Amino acid sequence: MAATATAGAAAAPPPRQCKLDPKSELRVEVPPDAPLRVRLVAGTAEIFGTELPPEGWVPIPPRSKIAIFTWHGATLELDGVTESEYPSEETPMVVYVNTHAILDARRARARAAAAQGGDLEASQGPRVIVVGPTDSGKSTLCKMLLSWAAKLGWKPTYVDLDIGQGSITIPGCISATPIEKPIDIVDGIPLEMPLVYFYGHPTPSINPDVYKVLMKELAKTLERQFSGNAESRAAGMVINTMGWVEGLGYELLLNAIETFKANVVLEKLWKMLKDAVQSKPNIDVVKLQKSEGVVLRNSKYRQKTRSFRIKEYFYGIANDLAPHSNIVNFSDISVYRIGGGHQAPRSALPIGAEPVADPTRLVAVNISTDMIHTVLAISYAKEPDEIISSNVAGFIHVTDVDIQRYAWKPLLVCGLYLCSPGVNVIHSRKKLTYIAPCPGDLPSRLLIASSLTWYEA
């Protein structure tokens, strides 16, 4: 089948069929503003480890870049517009499924060790961390490994450290969630039981110390869960990372490997990381090839993707949800920012020392119109000093901040109203308007500020 490309604004072509040979895939790019659906006519096929149902139409979300792979051959039918669609026999799937088989064997050994009363180390399943540069297919590989494991009855924990894009929840978060079934092609990562820590920025360079602290808090929480659940411990983790792999980014990758006690590293920086972890016991570094179907994305595209991810949180992937608008008094909430606190005075420092701002200090934020269009996280913390060590309940999007209003009250002079001069009257409201995914009061009065913005059309 020859490669085709269709402009997003063009009329949708009629449904068409594509026959795939065994161990080949159909690569498809979906435009942002046109529907597409796929149907399996014959054979078997899967999208990132999740099998297509026979004969049923499957809607593909806008802006998706997918590869429909078949092991034994398949006939597909496409209905709708695509930016590109073409088959390819160049695929790393055989290597990926062999990697999955090795991980599955490790899970089985860990489960057997737990049943025989083995120690925590022997009963620990694979903790896989996937690293590599931007647009090397890390998120896709994570989805496949998770879906294949869930298909066999395991419940691995997915950990997402990529704050730039966010595959579990909105960007700016470090998060984790158990995967109990193959990842849904349409709905994506399940959100029934996510564990989310809010960093609040799209890059760790803004405050790397806070990024490290939040990774540590998430790892501690997961360790507590694993210690009381032998099955989850044996299933292990699959950890996705950001694409920043040089300088500070490389340092943070090494920190993530240590923090989450990763014992399998799947990566594209084989030489660099192998040298860095060779002195550490029980860490296997595996070099994997980059998929030829990976699409490169520029910074402008990534920024748009972040905006779409925030919109999806409030409106749903299919734009079928209706967020609720609410108003809250300033006095009923407290907003804090992590990091950027006041520097200690020189008089309080040792001789010759320079004052340095505490990167993890909690700073109260005055509510102002600068918050309009920003995203605030709702902390589960009971007290402000617990915010950095607490996960979050969800997010709100600020649509308006009403600080105070001025009005001219005309003067009554000799029975006549004079327009000027008048009296300047301040009507103080001090109310913040926001949208939330569900109605009702906020679950907490402690909110976390961020640099994440979204402008609703």
Mean pLDDT: 87
CATH topology of the largest domain: Rossmann fold
Topology, number of strands: 23
Structural class: alpha+beta
Sheet with most strands: strand arrangement? 13-12-11-14-10-15-16
Instruction: Tell me, briefly, the overall form.
Output: globular
- Total helices: the number is 7
Q: Please identify which CATH superfamily of the largest domain we are dealing with.
A: P-loop containing nucleotide triphosphate hydrolases
- Rg on CA atoms, Å: 26 Å
Largest sheet: 7 strands, mixed
Number of separate structural domains: 3
Q: In CATH terms, what is the architecture of the largest domain?
A: 3-Layer(aba) Sandwich
Content of β-strand? 25-35%
Give helix % range: 10-25%
CATH class of the largest domain: Alpha Beta
End-to-end distance, in Å? 39 Å
Order of helices and strands: EEEEEEEEEHEHEEEHHEHEHEHEEEEEEE
Low confidence ranges:
1-9
What does this entry look like structurally?
Residues 1-11 have a biased composition (Low complexity). One of its GO terms (biological process) is tRNA splicing, via endonucleolytic cleavage and ligation. The chain has seven helices and 23 strands. It has three domains: 16-90, Clp1, DNA binding domain (Jelly Rolls, Sandwich); 93-287, Rossmann fold, CATH 3.40.50.300; 314-342 and 358-448, Beta Barrel (Elongation Factor Tu (Ef-tu), domain 3). Helices cover 22% and strands 31% of the residues. The radius of gyration is 26 Å and the shape is globular. The longest helix is centred in the first third of the chain and has 23 residues, at 93-115. The chain has 457 residues and is of the alpha+beta class.
